[in-house]
Design brief:
With about 100 residues, the protein is an all-alpha fold. It has four helices and no strands.
């Protein structure tokens, strides 16, 4: 799947401000979200923190397979489980469609 940098992606919105992996559409969408929902940064951080806590707890409980459907620039639950918790999940990428 090719990355279309003409459209915003949640990963780029999570990365802005302060990150290096965002593009103009991500920045515009983030500014719009902030205008209508000033708590957006807190909610976004809470969402990612929940995913990481859940992945950690499942990995520590012995789960080795995770189903995550990431966007083109989002690290999947597999990545977090492997990098942060030493889990070596059996990963098979399927094309959506």
């Amino acid at each position: 799947m090719a990355l279309d940098i003409r459209r915003p992606y949640s990963a780029g919105m999570y990365d802005f401000p302060g990150g290096m992996t965002n593009f103009e559409p991500d920045r515009v969408a983030t500014e719009q979200a902030l205008a209508g929902f000033p708590q957006y940064p807190v909610a976004a951080c809470g969402n990612r923190a929940f995913m990481h806590r859940t992945t950690r707890m499942l990995a520590q409980s012995g789960v080795t397979q995770f189903l995550d459907i990431p966007g083109p620039r989002v690290h999947s639950a597999h990545h977090g489980a492997r990098r942060r918790h030493g889990v070596r999940p059996a990963r098979r990428r399927e094309a959506a469609g």
